[in-house]
Amino acid sequence: MTDGTTGTDGAPAPTPYSRAYEQIVRSGDDLVGLVGYALYKKTVRSRIVEGRGSTPAQSRNLTEGEVELYRNRADSYLKRFADTSLREAEPTMIQTMLLQEVRKSTGFWYPGVVVGIVAWLVSIAITICATYVVPDVAHDIVHHLQPKTAGEQTEPPAPATR
């Protein structure tokens, strides 16, 4: 009696279709198997295009050696693809990482610029007030801050009137 997978002699039972997909692909998310199956289908197509014809479905069941050949080729292709992709993306990845580190250590520079502009405007306002609004106070402050020599007065001179 056969269970549909093996014949009476223990060999795989013939199926009405190729079992290559089931042999190469181990699960639905087996990327190596899926690429290996694509390579297998490319080989089958090439045979047909070259006029060598296709083989009957029963004889298209692969040997373990053929399955490993397609899986190994797929693994090699995927590794080369990953290496090439990483090499091409490396400069951008490095720039992004450096920019993130700079932002972490210094924060954004926009708030610093805003604070600088506000401080500059405040200092201009103070200068204008000191120069035009209260010139007498500014004169007294400047005179008080200047070093005194032995012959100078200790009292500030009277402010000039305008």
> From the helix content, strand content and strand pairing, which structural class follows?
mainly alpha
Instruction: Please report the distance between the alpha carbons of the first and last residues.
Output: 124 Å
Proportion of beta-strand residues = under 5%
Low-confidence stretches: none
Shape: rod-shaped
Helix segment count? 5
Q: Give the proportion of residues in helices.
A: 55-70%
Biggest β-sheet description: none
Overall mean confidence score, pLDDT:
79
How many structurally independent domains?
2
Query: How many strand units?
Result: 0
Order of helices and strands: HHHHH
- For the CA atoms, what is the radius of gyration? 43 Å
